[in-house]
Design a protein that fits this description.
With 218 residues, the chain is of the alpha/beta class. The chain has a four-stranded parallel β-sheet, with helices on one face. The chain has a two-stranded antiparallel ribbon with strand order 3-4. Helix 3 links the parallel strand 1 and strand 2. Helix 1 packs antiparallel against helix 2. It is elongated and about 85 Å long.
Amino acid sequence: MAMIAYATSSSAMFAASHKNPLLSTNHTTTTTNRNFQIRCQRNLAPVEQRWMFTDSDFTGPDVWNKTWYPKAEDHVNTEKTWYVVDATDKILGRLASTIAIHIRGKNLATYTPSVDMGAFVIVVNADKVAVSGKKRTQKLYRRHSGRPGGMKVETFDQLQQRIPERIIEHAVRGMLPKGRLGRDLFTHLKVYTGPDHPHQAQKPIDLPIRDKRIQKQT
């Protein structure tokens, strides 16, 4: 419709140009420079890429999404590795970071931030864990009962005498994600005060420790 309207208006101007010579120069140039051809271009895919657009790809492999993502069978709890570590004279922070790395699964090539890919870690002799400097008397642990004035504060030495397992649990929990995934990962940590643990059936192996400064120097 636009082309027809333009053709009608141009013919009217052409007729008017014979009557008025002042209009002949301007509008004659405009009409002659116009191109009334309509071209339809089809952008076809290259020959070597046309196989990606066939109907057979709906039943074949996913050629678009090549990023690997773990499936349910890739992180079954009954098939995960169990580690055991003796906390005797080991620095608390360095030990907790090593435990968190293996619980999180960051030591694996299949590590995925949103999936539980890690292992189980057993800590024995938690009552013999060490700290550096003056943290034994200066490091404070706070808890609140929820009532006004219900804040309870105790030092590292006091908590180690009362509930020694809570020290390692508190350190590792702070290094795990906050949320539902972090709560599930925290259940992979088993802390015991003595040298014995009830997980012999899982056949735990020694936790690999690469930090050379994890052992307290006497």
